[in-house]
Write a structure and sequence with these properties.
487 residues; alpha+beta; 37% helix; Putative aliphatic sulfonates-binding protein; transport; signal
Length: 487
C-alpha cells in the first residue's frame, strides 16, 4: 500500500503561518498511475485517491486517522472479483475545500472531505463538468451550529454581537462561517455595507489582523475560533449554536467511482467508523496524534473531540444535516455561487454509509436517533465517585498526565486545582461546560456566576453570566477571581 507520511506542522509553525502567511497543503509524493478501474480476474490496479483536510480537525475520522493508523487496508476486499486486485492508495492534504474539489473534478482524487458549503460548491463544479459527486456521510458537526464562531481581538471592549454594528468583520468567503455571519446580520436587522462591512479573509490572514486590531471581528469555521482564543490573540463572543444553524463536515465521492467500486467505498466508510470508535475510546491519545500531525494543539482538538465536546462526531444523515446542505445551497445562491436549482436529496447518498454500518455490525437506525454528545464516563477526580450529572462538569488536563481529570462540579475542580498548583504541577488547560448552551469552553476565557447558594455556573458570554447573577442573587467572576471562592 502506498502510504503518505504527512509532514508535521509544528505549533510554532502554525502560529507563524497564521501571523505571516498560509497553511501549506502537504500533497502526496505519489503520482497518479494509469488506472483501468476494472475489477476483472486479471491482476489490475484500483486507485483510491483520497483528499484530506488535516487542519480542519473534524475531518480527522475521514482522513488523517485512517491514513496514520493504516485502517483502510484492513477493510479493502481481497477475494472474489478483487482477489487479484492491487490497490494504489494515494493521500493528498489540503487546507480548504476548493482546491480539493478542483482535484476531484480533474479526476486526480476519488474521495474527499469538506464542510457543507464547500460540498455544495463541489456538486456545482461537477455538474458544470458534466459529472456528478455524491455526499456519502457526515463526519463531525453540530445540529445546533457549534463549531463556527465569531471572535474579537483579545483586548477589544466588545462583548456582544450588537456592539459590532458599524464595524468591519472578516470571514472566509463562501464558507460555513460566511453563512453564519449573514444569518447573524439578518437577525440583528443590519443592512450589509451600511450597518456592517464584511470583507473576505482566510484564517491565516485574519490571525495577524486580529492581533494588530486591523479588524473589529472575524468569523471562522473549525477550529480557528477556538485556536485563536487558545493562542491568546482573540476572544470568542459568539458561538454558532446561538444561531441554531446546523453545520457539519463530511465525505464526498465521485459518483462514477462509487458505482464502479461500491466495495471500496464500503471499506473506506468502515475505516471511518473504526476511526470514530477509537477517538471516542481514547480521546486524549488521538487528540495528541492529530496535534502531532497538524500543529493544532491537542488541547484544542480535545475541545472538539473529547467527551461533551463542542461538536459531535456523527456519521448519520440526520434531518438537520440535510437541512444544513439545503441552507448552503440557498445561501450560496444569494452569493451568486449557484442558481439554486439543486436537489440535495440526489446529492446525498445514504445507502453507502448504511451498508458500512451493517458490515461493521452497528445499528444505523439507532445511531440516527442518537443526538447525544460523545459521552463522559468517568469518576470525579476529587471524590472518586462516578459522575452522574454533566451540567457543571469541569475538566483539568495536567501537564505530564495522559488522561484529562474530570469533575462533576466546578467547585470540585477548583479545589483540586489548588492542590495541583501547590504540588508544583502545571496544567495544560481547564475546560468548563456553558450552563446555558452546554458547549465546552476554555475556562480561562469563560465567565462565571454564582446563585443564591453560591453554586458556580460557567458561561461563554459575560452578558449571560450577568443576567444569571442578577436573577439568582449572585455575582459575576472571571476565571482567576472565581477560583478564590473555593477553599
Amino acid at each position: 500500500m502506498a502510504k503518505l507520511t504527512t509532514k508535521k506542522v509544528l505549533l510554532s509553525s502554525i502560529i507563524s503561518l497564521v501571523f505571516t502567511g498560509g497553511l501549506s497543503a502537504c500533497d502526496s509524493k505519489n503520482t497518479d498511475k494509469t488506472n483501468t478501474n476494472s475489477t476483472s480476474a486479471k491482476a489490475e490496479t484500483v486507485r483510491i485517491a483520497i483528499g484530506t483536510q488535516d487542519t480542519t480537525i473534524n475531518c480527522a475520522t475521514g482522513g488523517l486517522l485512517i491514513r496514520e493508523l493504516d485502517l483502510l487496508d484492513k477493510y479493502l476486499p481481497k477475494d472474489g472479483e478483487y482477489k487479484n486486485v492491487k490497490y494504489d492508495i494515494q493521500w493528498k492534504n489540503f487546507t480548504s475545500g476548493a482546491p480539493l474539489t478542483s482535484e476531484m473534478v480533474a479526476d486526480r482524487l476519488d474521495i474527499g472531505a469538506m464542510a457543507d458549503f464547500p460540498a455544495v460548491n463541489n456538486l456545482v463544479a461537477f455538474q458544470k463538468a458534466g459529472k456528478q459527486s455524491l455526499f456519502l456521510n457526515p463526519l463531525s458537526g453540530s445540529t445546533t451550529g457549534s463549531g463556527n464562531a465569531i471572535v474579537v481581538p483579545t483586548e477589544s471592549k466588545v462583548n456582544s454581537i450588537a456592539e459590532l454594528k458599524g464595524q468591519t468583520i472578516s470571514v472566509p468567503f463562501a464558507s460555513t462561517a460566511h453563512g453564519l455571519l449573514l444569518r447573524v446580520a439578518k437577525e440583528q436587522g443590519w443592512e450589509l455595507d451600511k450597518d456592517i462591512k464584511i470583507i473576505a479573509q482566510a484564517p491565516e490572514v485574519a490571525g495577524p489582523a486580529l492581533k494588530s486590531n486591523k479588524i473589529a471581528a472575524h468569523a471562522d469555521f473549525v477550529p480557528f475560533g477556538e485556536l485563536f482564543a487558545y493562542q491568546g490573540i482573540a476572544r470568542k463572543i459568539y458561538d454558532g449554536s446561538q444561531a441554531n444553524a446546523p453545520t457539519f463536515h463530511g465525505s464526498i465521492v465521485t459518483k462514477d467511482y462509487a458505482e464502479k467500486h461500491p466495495e471500496v467505498i464500503k471499506a473506506y466508510l468502515q475505516a471511518t467508523i473504526e476511526a470514530d470508535q477509537l477517538l471516542q475510546k481514547e480521546p486524549e491519545k488521538y487528540s495528541q496524534l492529530i496535534a502531532d500531525k497538524t500543529g493544532i494543539p491537542a488541547e484544542v482538538v480535545y475541545l472538539f473531540h473529547g467527551p461533551l465536546g463542542l461538536q459531535t462526531r456523527d456519521l448519520t444523515w440526520k434531518p438537520e444535516y440535510r437541512q444544513a446542505t439545503q441552507t448552503a445551497v440557498d445561501t450560496l445562491k444569494i452569493l451568486g455561487k449557484n442558481d439554486g436549482k439543486i436537489d440535495v436529496n440526489q446529492f446525498i447518498s445514504e445507502q453507502y454509509i448504511k451498508d458500512a454500518f451493517s458490515a461493521s455490525k452497528f445499528d444505523y437506525t439507532k445511531s440516527l436517533a442518537n443526538y447525544g454528545k460523545s459521552p463522559l464516563i468517568a469518576k470525579d477526580a476529587l471524590t472518586g465517585e462516578p459522575i452522574q450529572t454533566f451540567k457543571h462538569v469541569t475538566q483539568i488536563w495536567v501537564k505530564g498526565e495522559k488522561q484529562v481529570r474530570s469533575y462533576e462540579t466546578a467547585e470540585h475542580a477548583f479545589q483540586d486545582l489548588k492542590k495541583i498548583q501547590q504540588a508544583g504541577q502545571q496544567t495544560r488547560v481547564v475546560y468548563s461546560q456553558d450552563f446555558q448552551s452546554d458547549i465546552k469552553l476554555l475556562s480561562n476565557l469563560a465567565w462565571f456566576a454564582t446563585n443564591q447558594t453560591g453554586q458556580i455556573q460557567a458561561f461563554l458570554l459575560k452578558d449571560d453570566a450577568t443576567k444569571f447573577a442578577q436573577t439568582h442573587s449572585g455575582k459575576v467572576y472571571d476565571f482567576k477571581a472565581v477560583q478564590q471562592l473555593v477553599k
